[in-house]
Amino acid sequence: MMNIRNWSLAFKLPLAFTALVAGIAFTIGAAIIMQDWFRFREALEEKALLLARSAAVNAPAAILRNDYWELYKGLKSASAKGIGGMRDEEVLTSMVLNEDGRVLAHLYPSDNPLGMPLQTKNEADRAFLSIALHTTEPRILRGRGFIEGVIPVFSDEKKIGVIRLRLSTVELVAQIKNGALTTFGLTAILVFGGSILVGMISRRLLRPLTALSTGMEAVGRGDFPKLDPAIIKEGDEISKLEASFNRMALELEEKKQLERELSANEKMAALGRIAAGVAHEVNNPLAGMLNCLDTLKRHPDDEKILERYLPLIEKGLNRIHSIVQGLLGEMRTETADDESDASCLDDLREVALAEIGERPIHLEWGNQLSGAKINCKRVQLIVLNLLKNSIQALDGKGSVRFRSAQDGPCLFFEVADDGPGVPEEQRRHLFDPFYSTRPEGTGLGLWIVYRLTRSMGGKVELTTSPEQGTVVQVYIPTDATDQDNVDWVI
Amino acid sequence: MARSRRNVLRVTVFVLALFFSIGTAWAQSEKPLRLGLTAVVASENLRFFDRWAAYLTKKMGRPVEFIRRRSYREVMEMLEAGSIDFAWICGYPFVQRREPEYLQLMAVPIYQENPLYHSYIIVHRDSPYKTLDDLQEKVFAFSDPDSNSGFLYPQFLLANMGFHVERFFRETVFTFNHGETIEAVAERFADGGAVDSYIWEYLAEVKPEMVNKTRVINKSPPFGFPPLVARRGIDKETTARFSEIMISMSEDPEGRAFLKELKLDGFGIFAPELFQNIREIADEVKKARPWLSGNNRK
User: A361 has which bridge partners?
Assistant: First the structure.
């Protein structure tokens, strides 16, 4: 069932107006018709009395003389249609009765014979007859389909009979019906015309609003449409709204453009930073190694020097090797996109235990993702880096917890430790490449986690405190398409 | 002095008398002849009677006027009082009023070759009534209490049946007009009525839609046709002249046109004995109602 609140304004507005117009027109029409009805009925009542009076003119003498033929002629002339062009109403019946209700004359003598009591067909007729026989004043009786004028006939203040004349109200009702039809016809035309007009007006009014709402939706999607200037040419509130919307869209677009430029700049800057980092990280051992080589060249036969410097050179090369390995590993993994079962994560458990070795570190494992499809290589690298970080952060004892689960539309991975947490001043650099708090660290672990997560459209949340240790939570949307272009915002 | 004064008086009287006699003679010659009409003819046809009056005026050389009254009685009284000179009346008032001999039979219309007509007892075409007997306790319409066909004859029929009008019918009405009697029956205001056969047949042609709704259930023996009469007081010469004009209408195209409209063949001179049978049935009725005998006005 459609809720009326959800209907379009383009429909509701004309509907409301139509209802209003129809209501007013109907009320006025009904009032006019009622007024007409009362006025016409009053006129008809006057006519009924007048006609009965005209039949009554010669009645007293005729009744006294038993001149029933004269009475009948009087009734006929009073009941003749169109007498003096006075009316079109049909005389249903007319009669002269004596005080006992016997017929002295009747417009329809064959059914109402002279000298016989008036035949009444039903209770209502009997009631009317009784009223007519007992009235001493001219009066009007209103019945179903007729109006009756009753004139008592007196002679020397003695009531000697009564004249009754009924006018049909059929014509009256027909007239009123015609009037009602005309009124309601006009109402219908008015309502029809009015609703078309209001429909047009409201469409005109609503077109900018509709455009505005479409525009807003586009903004929500990230587009910045500009509204048709043709509909903003008027100076009303809606046009002002449209103009401000256009300004807003323009400003938003400029902002986005700016951001895009900024992001490109930052990408370049980050790239530079990584290059500088790599250069710096590689340069340090290289300088040491070159120094060693120089010394070895000058003392080629000095065993002692050889013994002392060769391990140094090896150490430097190893360091360069691990840096390059880390970068290469990340880059390779980033493009890996083979989906496989989440149970592949359980392989990491052995790796983590090997990393822990003999140290009193408890590993809690809770992989609840069995059956779900994941990008195994990327997620493995993410989780492995987090596990390594946690184990290293523990300083030789404590516990590490791994959990994974489906969380709504996301896959959820959590690695937590009860270590000392990350000091305040280090937190903002945690995800920077080559930032490490340990001398042997490459500073690439969390950077890799961040980049891989972002490459799958996910996000990383890190909470840390000295009391509760550090918890890293990774959310990866299951329906995310591969983000080939990884944001370089770091 | 006294003599001359007497002479002056004589001359004055003479002159006055002269003027008076001339004035009277003038008035006499210009005084219109007035003919009273009753229900025996369809006198509502005003334009016809105006034309006929003009024709008669031309023939008589003095104005002739038609006078209409509702009842025979009014016309008879006017005749008696001398306020009208002639009248076209029914045979019944004629025989009633012949006793004082103030009426003179002037001419009798000839209808369908005879100076005769009938009384018809009529009922509504769709009614079940076949005889007058069936109309007991019903409403009956008479034309005029002094009408032969419209009152006397049905009274006579009832008297023969041993009934009185007042007790036989439930209600009776006088329409004072044969046409209206037919109307009353046609509209079933009255269950039956008594009418002049001439009027019934005349209206059957003029107003067939009305007359066709009625049906004759009793036709009387022939009676003398309602005659034209003159009051006794009028001079014989005028009466003879007027009678002659009426009788000669059938010999004159213009007159024949009027007769045709009246649906009459002409007028003729007939002896008063023509109305003898009306007098007889009037006597019969009186015998049946002994309390009425001697109630012969004047």
Answer: A398
